[in-house]
Write the structure tokens for this entry.
Amino acid sequence: VRADGANLLRFLKNADQRVVPLYQRRYSWTEDEWRQLWADILRVADDPAGPDHFIGSVVQIGGIALSAGHNPLQLIDGQQRITTISLALLALARCAQGRMEANPVDSDARAVADEQIHARYLVDEREPGARRYKLLPNEADRATYLALIEGTPLPDRPARGVVDAYRFFEAQIESSGRPLNGLLGAISRLLVVEIALERGRDDPQLIFESLNSTGLDLTQADLIRNYVLMRLAPAEQDDLFRHYWRPMEERLGPVGPEGFDRFVRDYLTMRTAQIPRVDQIYRAFKAYVASSAESPTEVARDLHRFSAHYAKLVSGAEEDSTIKAALADINTLKVEVAYPFLLDVLDDHAEGKISRDELAQVLRTVESYVFRRAVSGVPTNALNKIFASLSREVDEERYLESLRAALLLKEGSARLPRDEEFRRELLAKDIYNFRNRTYLLDKLENHGRKERVDISAYTIEHVMPQNPELSPECQDELGPEWQRIQAEHLHTLGNLTLTGYNSELSDRPFAEKLTMPGGFKDSPIRLNESVRARSRWTEDAITERAEELAELAAEVWPAPTLPGDVLERYRSARQRVRSAYTLADHPTLHGPLSDLFAELRVRVGNLAPEVSEEIRKHHIDYRSGRVFLCVVPLATELKLYLAGVDPEVLDDPDGRVRDMRGIGHWGVGDVEVRVASHADLEPVMDLVNQTFQAIEESGSDEEQYPV
């Protein structure tokens, strides 16, 4: 590595062409950055005797010769400021040219024109074709930049940021009233640190990460792209970028600006069963690549493959109508935490491991699992971990069977509500204020229909009106306990339906709602069949209709089923896996750590009667419904991993907690603490107890699925 201070204009005058690699982000400075640079230029211009002004660093690396005598430098950091300065110089040169044409004797304009800005700093007239340009921006900005340099018409779809930057400086120069020569003199006193790397010897990514740039913060996507492509030779960079990376980014474009980061996070979760923090995706990606047998190039190709599946998940890029409908329903539930598992399932389908019909059944099973839990009020903060590891519970030889068994065998906060619980909760639930009420009514209305009803054209109708002052007719029909009945049943499933005549129906008595024009007897909505079948709207009528709809709901969102002997076989196999190892497989627990582990084991077991121990090859797990603690025995200490709780929420006055999000390790859990002596037990058990209480209580975290 060679780092030298350099005068900016001398740096630009250097004959070497500088090329922004294809993988670098496009020009992205905005008016905030332009105004800051312009203010710096004016400050230097106002202080002729003052010091020169440093504007940042520029990192470049020697490329591979593209032709005889042509060996451009790759600009791997600093492209934003170099592009901006080049556009400012172009604006200055054009202003001088315009003033000279208007007044040939303008001495200020003549002084700037004599500096030959265009020929010295922007192009090299000795070189042919594209080689003549001192700076070649990346492909997305190049045509626009070169058109501005040459004064030719802009492309049909110009790079707006490049055009706007040029026009900004053009407007500032003209409106400032300052001597052009003074502005050029100020620019000549700007300094950069030029960092030159040698290909094959220096690691450009490490340099890139360590710089404290004054420009825009890089996104996680920028960092990942640079990490994969920066170490490659230019020809390999171009090939990988054109054939894999750019198509992947274009494919994910409709997802939105955060789409790539979300995709990589879900990809890493699928691959590692660990969920990276939102702000640590790049760190987790590097850790994954470092631990993987695949090269960064192979990982990029794998990302490209899975991005096609992700596009199907989030943007409807699926041609098969059955699969597309199932994915749309899952997305309506907004259960993005299932994406890591679904990515794997879609890839298995693409690889021919499961058929189209099996894929549809898997998707509908996931939909039922999520929706039944939402209706039943099962705490949702476990869903992220459930779906992160669900693929590992699926046997590719018995795909559907093993998936059904995995869900049926889940317990506690991971459980799948059976029909009895699902129907019971559905009958009592406040459906009107339920987040998924429209989805629920839509699915009930359209179940079994080939010609779907678009329920967005309808509104939700309370058959028994919401008005606390019910009409005398309604009160009489409900009986003396009408207030209790209204309070208990108003927003429940049995009292809700769909109508296009909400304002007309209003608070009318049931008999009028039934027979009036547009009333329930005229309605084409299937949900109204069970309303018009009643002659009176009483508590029994509401309850009976709710029970009918709950039975229908159990068909629409069926629980997976397996023969008892098959399910028992999976249960036994699961228990055998858990009991395949004993404490004898952990020799360090029989040495100096034996007493320490024995006391820890007793204290963890005393947390609650339902706490169970599972001895695995590399760790010992403790669960209450799901794992909350993993103990990894080492030679002289115990590593404990706390699962189901974020490091930030723990009360840790001694600073024992280590954040392990995005870092691979044995067992599960994002929090590491260590126990090396009996003195450590008390404070560590306090952390364990906090974790246990957190997973036992209904809580939320950033992955919570909103119900």
